[in-house]
Amino acid sequence: MAKKLWGGRFSKRILREVLSFTSSIGIDKRLAIYDCVGSIAHAKMLGKTGILKPKESAKLVRGLNSILNSLKKGTFKIDKGFEDIHSNIQFALEKKAGKVADKLHTARSRNDQVANDTRMYCKDRIGALVKSLGGLQKAILGAAKKYFGFTIPGYTHLEHAQPVLFSHILLAYLEMLERDKKRLCDSRKRMDVLVLGSGALSGTTLPIDRNYVKKLLDFKEVSKNSIDAVSDRDFVVELLGVLSIMSMHLSRISEDLILYGTKEFGFIEIDERYCTGSSLMPQKKNPDVLELIRGRTSQIYGGLISVLGMLKGLPLSYNRDMQLDKEPLFNSIEIVNGELALLAGLFRSMRVNRREANAIFEDESIFATDIAEYLVKKGISFRQAHEITGKLVRYCEKKKENISELSLKQLKKFSKLFEKDIFRNLNAAASIKLKKSIGSTKPAFVKKEIKKWKEKLTA
Question: Domain 16-106 is in which class?
Fold first, then answer.
């Protein structure tokens, strides 16, 4: 059984089943590099302040750097006999530096050590997530440029609504993801606080220099309250909240692509490298990647709820329950980051089917709003125009005729304001070009937005 960082007060050895139950090394091993980096800064500070002799500090730093290098190379042995990765590294340091390793824990508790490691991990992972988000945005923008001019029906209530540029839909995804990116960056500001030096909960009587450690570890601020510092997990909750919103966005995007790729819609073709087949039905090409992105959203939600539930009844300051924040945090970050990369590849390889989209526009009821606004421009209220157009659509449905198949004389029975120019508006190209409002699907506006996004994403 591996040594512990504590034990002087105990006369009996911990039961193996208790060690197994309380051990977190299988999960918090992801913090190993951050633990070494934090310990190096702590050791340097102990030497700078004279708490340790310069030779002692230097010996600790050399030993820790050796462990850090082995961690980066993947050669460091994770020993599951230890209760956590911090103990594992501490006793690995003993083998390299000798008894001076016992002095590393001076003016430090695992309470502030673990909290600080987790903040460093989160800051680093946010950087990776922002980069992955940017990669997905570039892939989506590439599709928006490639398929500019491709028009499909827009939907409300999953019913045909109005024609829109496919690029306009893709740019909507960019807006969603950009908000996610901003939320990530905003959450990083609040976690950019050094908590190392808070001790178990009340600080230390030793003359440590927290501002020096702050600079070494590239934190923006030093925590102001030692009790809050060791018990705060708001930054974990906030990051999980951001990831939950992001997962919701990825799920909605996936659902759109799943629908658009079905035989019933047929607007896009998903590259078969992102699909699987059926063990029974030879013809199947299933969008499993998109379905799993949609499905795993519930896992991200579950991670947020589990941490909120764990924290809700905890008294100040540190409690062992807080160990349970790591698994949902690590898993959620890894799941989302992997999904971003997969979706980027899927968008780059996606193809569109113009024939299927054009076939839907043969039902001219999709231009009903354009007809109503045509009448508004002739001087009547929108409510009147809405009623006239609704009656016209109902008539055509009953007669199984398109609006363009009616004569001008027939149209005038619904409103004397109809003229020959109405027939020019009964196609998708005209519908989107008629738009005037900023942010609409008007091709000129969409083209400008594509240019803006290109400048933004390459800045």
Answer: mainly alpha
Q: Nearest 5 degrees, angle CA 13-CA 16-CA 18?
A: 90
E strand or H helix at 296 = helix 288-311
Its CATH class, for the domain covering 361-458, is mainly alpha
The pair of three-digit structure tokens given for residue 170, joined into one six-digit string: 């893709």
Of the residues 20, 202, 278, 381, only one is catalytic, namely 278
User: Within 13 Å and on the Cβ side, how many CA atoms surround 26?
Assistant: 8
User: pLDDT 10s per residue in the chain (459 long)?
Assistant: 456 564 556 667 777 788 778 789 999 999 999 999 999 999 999 999 999 999 999 999 999 999 999 999 999 999 988 989 999 999 999 999 999 999 999 999 999 999 999 999 999 999 999 999 999 999 999 999 999 999 999 999 999 999 999 999 999 999 999 999 999 999 999 999 999 999 999 999 999 999 999 999 999 999 999 999 999 999 999 999 999 999 999 999 999 999 999 999 999 999 999 999 999 999 999 999 999 999 999 999 999 999 999 999 999 999 999 999 999 999 999 999 999 999 999 999 999 999 999 999 999 999 999 999 999 999 999 999 999 999 999 999 999 999 999 999 999 999 999 999 999 999 999 999 999 999 999 999 999 999 999 999 998
Give the predicted TM-score (pTM) of the model.
0.94
- Cis previous bond, 254, omega within 30: no
Q: Cβ contacts of residue 433 below 8 Å, gap of 6+?
A: 442, 443
CB 1 within 8 A of CB 13: yes
Reply yes or no on whether 157 is catalytic.
Answer: yes
157, 279, 407, 437: which is the annotated catalytic residue? 157
Domain definitions of the chain by residue range: 16-106, 111-358, 361-458
Q: What is the CATH number of domain 111-358?
A: 1.20.200.10
**Strand ranges in 111-238 using DSSP code E only, listed in sequence order:** 151-156, 159-165, 193-194, 221-222
* Pairwise CA distance, residues 303 & 245, whole Å: 13
